[in-house]
């Protein structure tokens, strides 16, 4: 599907899995690599369970710090993709990996801050019922009260061996999210940042001893969160 983003003045591609009479809509946000195909088994699991899925594609982010422009583009494209599907009245859920989780938090009402002190917030808050975030980048949310407007029930999964978004950083959300979010964090042994991906990026090696079983468990846990 090609989506026109009037705010950014550019079209972009999005993977869309549409169910007849869906139980809800899942807005999926990818990480730095930008390609939903690397999570296709997860997206297909949602589809098979009766949920429509919309997942924008993005260009690969350059190594180094994520800029205000990078985050703003992803937030804007996610919002435009949702508008393209027009899910009036459908329950809305957000699922994302790494920087995709950051973008979903912004769309859920959080105010992010870059290391340069620039603030990023969404033009509108999306009415997510629940967020399911895999190894999200949460260092953007350290400013006082930047999470006060988030109301979606939020659950995180992070790997004990993750050196990109280490589990210790998740205390930022644990301390900052309102009680209404019913925040839950699961720390997973023998798990790294990329273990959550169905298809690893080029040049990446993952040392998890049983990726197939791990990924099946994560898919089941995310679905349980959405349906619980």
Description of the structure:
26% of the residues lie in helices and 23% in strands. With 228 residues, it is an alpha/beta fold. The strands form two sheets. It has an eight-stranded mixed sheet with strand order 1-2-4-3-5-8-9-10, with helices on both faces. Strands 6-7 form a two-stranded antiparallel sheet. A hairpin with a 4-residue loop joins β1 (2-5) and β2 (10-17). The longest helix is centred in the middle third of the chain and has 18 residues, at 68-85. The mean pLDDT is 94.
Radius of gyration, taken over Cα atoms and rounded to an integer in Å? 16 Å
Largest sheet properties? 8 strands, mixed
Q: Low-confidence runs (pLDDT<50, min 5 residues)?
A: none
Q: What percentage of the residues does DSSP assign to strands (E)? A: 15-25%
Alpha-beta classification: alpha/beta
Question: What strand order characterises the main sheet?
Answer: 1-2-4-3-5-8-9-10
Shape descriptor reads globular
Assembly level: single chain
Question: Helix share of residues?
Answer: 25-40%
Number of distinct beta strands: 10
What is the count of DSSP helices, taking H or I runs of 4+ residues?
5
Mean pLDDT: 94
Question: What is the structure about, briefly put?
Answer:
This protein is of the alpha/beta class. Helices cover 26% and strands 23% of the residues.
Give the helix/strand layout.
Blueprint: E1 2-5, E2 10-17, E3 24-29, H1 40-48, E4 51-56, H2 68-85, E5 92-97, H3 99-107, E6 112-113, E7 119-120, E8 128-134, E9 153-159, H4 171-176, E10 184-188, H5 211-227
Parallel strand pairs: 3-4, 3-5, 5-8, 8-9, 9-10
Antiparallel strand pairs: 1-2, 2-4, 6-7
Helix pairs in contact: 2-3
